[in-house]
Design brief:
The complex is a heterodimer. By secondary structure, chain A is of the alpha+beta class. Chain A contains twelve helices and 19 strands. In chain A, the strands form four sheets. Chain A has an eight-stranded antiparallel beta sheet. Classes of the chains: A alpha+beta, B alpha/beta.
């Protein structure tokens, strides 16, 4: 099987590293046949989770078949390389939907398990792994093992959120949710500041299956944390099926000056005015509702050729308001523009040993890399997150330190024991796992 | 009547692209290759994505003694067979030029096996006065080059065979189309240096299916390969033999 040695990156386009890519086309060829490898699905993690500098990266994009779909029970089994978009194209017309979906459908099914991704419904439905009925995992010795919450449960919960470090996730079986309609019913609620936003998010009368708050990251002082809470659920009544939005492309890397505090401030003010005027329920197609950025095929180029870092953290309920206020104040004071600032609620912590979600609130920020000062700011944000008992999302991360990681993930030692038992030679290793001290630096 | 199309060598990347393009327009499929596990997976996928009926059966191009039984079994499963796509092939490796055992395998797969199964297909379609045969050959068959001339010779022989078959079946209303893909992004080419203008297997699959709606007999895919090969074929041998290709 031929390999291709080339420089690749995650979705944030930072870091860029030379890796040796292999792209099997047969299911039986999904094998750990090198001393060091990591699987890469669609490369939609942001940092270095799907990179293996100077080592093997196994692409699963050609092992992407749908295998079984029980349309009565809503159970789907597929090869892990298939994307959520391909799954949706088949299940939505049959009246089913994904139980949990991240903000893009251009991710692989296996990646959703490896990062234990979440959506806007975590506070009701948990993370992706909570809906996985079984996986087939290819272990370091090349053997295949079926894992689920009942069978090989410890390995299953080490793999859910395990960032691909326990083995090759080759097949995934998931339980879908039934929908009556492909449309969403949506309501927008405006909040003048962070306090109002938290009050809205905690109000059971306003809460919905899916909730997400857009925050104007440039607002300061009395307006700090102003934003719009967007609530939605799958529509019950039968109406027309909307057309999927057309795909647009970013034709070139935006120059660094395109996104600055003035342009983003102007955009945010306009967006706030426009979107806050929608308190009444309106209908939206599922594609536009769940995947607004997918309509812009390679929106990561907006951040310029030096790339960007998405910083996503969670802070437990009790300290969430104080923590978020402190994070937003620090960000605002830095005058570093964040084009995207999104706040969501998380429900109870799941069983994935390295899973990101914990009961609380999660904030995501997109920060373009303009200079090394950004990394100082992010270290400061880490300290705040740690102080309030929170953690940073590994699927987005490109720069967390090994020490901070160990403090943020208290179940890491438990995970470590599983990793050692199934992969004693540390065959599954990525640039992320070496940076975080999970696998050794020398190979 | 829903038509059924037999794809021989159905688990290659190009064949998967062809199968998807046929299924997308509603054709039922019959997949055949050596690898039963892959066949089962691809068949399930095509049925779920496109809602068509997909059969499959193990087929070994090199085991020519099994071809008649294989083809009879296919006909028993699908009396409405409307066309055949021959998509199998074996590139071999650098040894093919020096080691006859490797060369023999390349010839057995790309040429002998193809002749064996295609004569059965031709004999079936001829009296029915309908049907099509699409043979996937290669631009490598247009001129012998030091880097892959055993493969090229086998594919060149296949192209000639298809040409004769077309001549024989034309009066009987059976289409024979020769497809010559250039560089396609498959396991065969992955990571090879010096590739340019590489097409995806999905694009090639769609174009192959589209040729059925056109009067073409020999199709280069993508189309500009016709001109690349026109130039390559017209380099005088006295010059060509000195070139490193």
């Amino acid at each position: 099987m031929g390999t291709l040695t080339t420089a690749i990156s995650g979705w944030g386009r930072y870091p860029v590293q030379v890796c040796e890519l292999a792209r099997p086309e047969r299911y039986a060829a999904l094998l750990p046949d090198t001393a060091s490898l990591i699987v890469r699905g669609q490369g939609r993690s942001y940092g270095d989770a799907s990179l293996n500098e100077n080592g093997r990266v196994l692409l699963t994009e050609r092992v992407n078949r749908l295998l079984e779909f029980d349309t009565d029970q809503g159970i789907l089994r597929a090869e892990a390389g298939v994307t959520l978009g391909e799954i949706l194209a088949v299940i939505v017309p049959k009246g089913w939907f994904l139980p949990v979906t991240p903000g893009t459908k251009f991710v692989s099914l296996g990646g959703c398990v490896a990062a234990d991704v979440h959506g806007k419904n975590h506070h009701h439905d948990g993370a992706f792994g909570d809906h996985v009925l079984a996986i087939e995992l290819v272990l370091a010795d090349g053997s295949r093992m079926t894992c689920s919450a009942e069978q090989n449960a410890l390995l299953f919960w080490a793999t859910v959120g395990g960032m691909g470090l326990t083995g090759i996730i080759a097949e995934v079986t998931i339980k879908l949710i039934a929908i009556q309609n492909s449309q969403m019913t949506v309501r927008h609620h405006a909040a003048a500041n962070l306090e109002q936003l938290f009050a809205l998010m905690q109000n059971p009368a306003i809460d919905d299956r899916y909730t997400v708050a857009w925050i104007d990251s440039m607002a300061t002082g009395a307006q700090l944390g102003r934003g719009i809470l967007m609530c939605g659920h799958h529509a019950e009544d039968v109406t027309t099926i909307p057309q999927a939005a057309s795909q647009r492309r970013i034709p070139f890397d935006f120059p660094d000056w395109a996104l600055n505090s003035i342009s983003i401030g102007a955009f945010n003010s306009q967006y706030f005015r426009r979107e806050s005027g929608k308190p009444e329920a309106f209908a939206s197609g599922w594609d536009a509702y769940f995947y607004p950025l997918d309509a812009l095929e390679n929106w990561n180029r907006m951040y310029g050729k030096r790339g960007f870092v998405q910083y996503q953290c969670v802070i437990p309920d009790a300290a969430a308001y104080d923590g978020m206020q402190k994070l937003l104040q620090t960000l605002s004071a830095s005058r570093r523009p964040s084009f995207l600032a999104v706040l969501k609620r998380f429900g109870a912590e799941g069983r994935g040993l390295l899973s990101f979600p914990m009961k609380g609130y999660t904030l995501a920020l997109d920060l373009p890399i303009r200079d090394a000062g950004l990394f100082d700011l992010l270290n400061t944000l880490d300290e705040i997150v740690l102080h309030y008992g929170g953690r940073v999302y590994l699927a987005k991360d490109a720069r967390l330190s090994a020490e901070t990681f160990a403090l943020m993930y208290p179940r890491y030692q438990e995970w470590r024991a599983v990793k050692n038992s199934v992969d004693p030679e540390q065959r599954f290793s990525s640039s992320l796992s070496r940076r975080l001290g999970i696998t050794a630096e020398d190979r | 009547m829903s038509e059924c199309i037999l794809i021989l060598g159905a688990t290659s990347a190009i064949a998967r692209g062809v199968a998807a393009a046929f299924a997308a327009r509603g054709d039922n499929l019959y997949l055949a290759s050596r690898d039963e596990d892959e066949l089962r997976r691809s068949a399930a996928d095509l049925q779920l994505r496109y809602g068509v009926t997909v059969h499959y059966r193990v087929f070994d191009a090199e085991a020519t003694e099994t071809h008649e039984a294989f083809f009879n079994a296919v006909l028993a499963d699908t009396p409405d067979l409307s066309g055949v796509v021959l998509a199998f092939g074996y590139l071999g490796n650098q040894l093919a030029a020096r080691d006859f055992a490797v060369a023999a395998k390349v010839i057995a797969s790309n040429f002998t096996g193809a002749v064996s199964i295609l004569s059965l297909c031709a004999n079936y379609f001829e009296p029915l006065q309908r049907g099509f045969i699409i043979g996937i050959s290669s631009v490598a068959g247009d001129r012998g080059r030091q880097s892959n001339y055993v493969y090229g010779a086998a594919k060149g022989a296949l192209s000639l065979y298809l040409q004769g078959l077309r001549n024989r079946l034309y009066p009987h209303g059976v289409r024979v189309i020769t497809v010559k893909p250039g560089f396609v992004d498959t396991a065969m080419t992955y990571g090879l240096p010096g590739l340019f203008l590489v097409a995806t297997p999905q694009q090639i699959g769609q174009r192959i299916v589209a040729t059925l709606g056109k009067p073409a007999d020999v199709v280069y895919l993508p189309g500009f390969w016709r001109y690349i090969m026109l130039i390559i074929k017209h380099i005088p041998e006295a010059v060509f033999k000195r070139m490193k290709m």
